[in-house]
Every structure is written in structure tokens, then in C-alpha cells.
Design a protein that fits this description.
Length: 271
């Protein structure tokens, strides 16, 4: 057994010529696949370009959605360990911020009118139309505080225009938030309906769930507020036209109506 261990530890084997051992030693010293040089090479982390990290994350968001983005998934697709990724990106939120960064700068700004009311409406309509072009951005924004600094000019314009219309700073900020909720809600709904429409097995539940019994107001008050079956007379009446009526919807018109209503409701008090 001592002889076997000696051979395994480099004592050589019978039939091996001295020059064979010299050639093995030479190849090792020249940085072959074995030896300390190889160990050092294997230990070096692969260089990661920040642009590559962002590009992979953005592709995943565009193709599969925000939930599919994980630090481990991005690291695997780049070909590095998750720990190597954390040297460049703190967490998923920061990664998504990097994905958002610069998106607004790639989209042209419209020429805005001087009148503050018209300017406010134009910015709100532009905000909605722009986000319709990049639905993946809406999904990132739905996470909360994440945003693209390059898009803040729209908030600046809306708040400033509202103040120029006579609103207090607080009322101007609330007006912006109301507009954003309208825009964001429509975009989320539109995205959901687009996905459902692509499903060949999709089943529409409204207004098909309405029946003739819903027009009977005898068990209610006659105004649609009863507790019986006749609580939905108006919706039942409109059911045959519902799809047509809901498709006849212009967001620009609705945003204008919202702006005008808010300006009247929260404008400066009459003198």
C-alpha cells in the first residue's frame, strides 16, 4: 500500500520514461489545464457589463412581465452567479429602476399650448398615449414608488398648470393624483382586456349575466334600490347596446371632463 500511495503522489509508474515526466511538467508550468494557474483562472469572476444586466431584465419584463424578473433569473441568463450581480445592482427594485431609466427620454415631447388649462389637458392626454405604447412600464409603475426621473416633467407641468389656473398647491397635487388614477386605471384595464381578448376560450360574463327578471321592479322600490330581483332595470335596458356604448370611449374627452370638473370644484372661491 505504501508503494501504491507513492505512485499516486507522483512517484511514477513502471514503464514511464523520464522525458514523459519532463514534458508533463513543462505543460503544467506553461499554464495548462491543471495546476495553480488554472485554479487562479477559475477563481476570477466573469466581467459583467451593467448594460447587459439591464438589457436582459428589460427583455424578461417585456416578454413575460415583472413577476418573471428575479436576480437569480437575470444572473443565470447572463452567465454569472447571483452574488456577482449584487455587486452591480442592490435589489430587484433598483434593477427595475434601471430598466425604466431613460425610457421617457426616447419618446418625443409634444408642443404644449400656453393656456394653463389647455396645457394641463394636453400633458394628461400625452401621458396616457405614451404609456399605451409601453405597457410594460405600467406594470413596473404598479409596484409603487418606482419611476423614471425623465418622466417627471409631466407631473411638473400638470401641477404648475393647475396652480396657474388658480388652484392652491395642495389642490393642484390632488388634481394630478386624480388624473394619474384615471390614466393608470384605464391602462391597467386595457392591458387586462387585451390579454383576455387573445384567449380563444374567453367567456364574457357581463352583460350576459343579466336576465329579464332584473327588469322587474315589483319586488323593489321601482328605482333600482330594492332587495328583490328587480334591481337592475337600467343596465338590463342597455345590455343589448353595452358593447357598442363602452367601445365608444375617447380617453382625451374623458380627461378633459375630469380636468374641467376638478377646476370648477377646487378652483379659487368666487369674489
Amino acid at each position: 500500500m505504501a508503494e501504491t500511495a507513492g505512485r499516486a503522489s507522483g512517484g511514477g509508474t513502471r514503464g514511464e520514461r523520464p522525458q514523459d515526466k519532463r514534458s508533463q511538467s513543462d505543460s503544467t508550468s506553461k499554464g495548462g489545464a491543471t495546476g495553480r494557474g488554472a485554479a487562479r483562472s477559475a477563481g476570477r469572476p466573469r466581467r459583467v457589463e451593467p448594460d447587459a444586466i439591464v438589457a436582459v431584465a428589460r427583455r424578461i419584463v417585456e416578454e413575460e412581465g415583472v413577476d418573471a424578473v428575479t436576480m437569480r433569473r437575470v444572473a443565470r441568463e447572463i452567465g454569472v452567479t447571483p452574488m456577482a450581480l449584487y455587486h452591480h445592482v442592490r435589489d430587484k427594485d433598483q434593477l427595475l429602476m434601471l430598466v425604466l431609466a431613460g425610457t421617457a427620454a426616447t419618446l418625443p415631447r409634444p408642443e404644449l399650448p400656453e393656456d394653463p388649462r389647455e396645457r394641463l389637458i394636453a400633458v394628461a392626454v400625452h401621458m396616457h398615449a405614451t404609456l399605451r405604447q409601453v405597457p410594460w412600464v405600467v406594470e413596473i409603475l404598479s409596484l409603487g414608488d418606482l419611476t423614471d426621473k425623465g418622466a417627471l416633467w409631466m407631473i411638473e407641468e400638470i401641477v404648475d398648470s393647475a396652480i396657474r389656473c388658480g388652484l392652491t398647491p395642495g389642490a393642484a397635487v390632488r388634481l394630478y393624483r386624480t388624473l394619474w388614477h384615471c390614466v393608470f386605471g384605464e391602462l391597467v384595464f386595457h392591458r387586462a382586456m387585451t390579454r383576455r381578448s387573445a384567449d380563444p376560450d374567453r367567456k364574457r360574463y357581463f352583460p350576459e349575466i343579466l336576465t329579464e327578471a332584473d327588469t322587474d321592479t315589483s319586488t323593489g322600490t321601482g328605482t333600482g334600490t330594492g332587495t328583490g330581483t328587480g334591481k337592475l332595470p337600467r343596465l338590463t335596458e342597455l345590455a343589448p347596446q353595452w358593447v357598442e356604448l363602452t367601445e365608444d370611449y375617447e380617453m382625451a374627452e374623458q380627461l378633459t371632463a375630469v380636468v374641467d370638473g376638478l377646476l370648477r370644484h377646487t378652483g379659487p372661491p368666487a369674489r
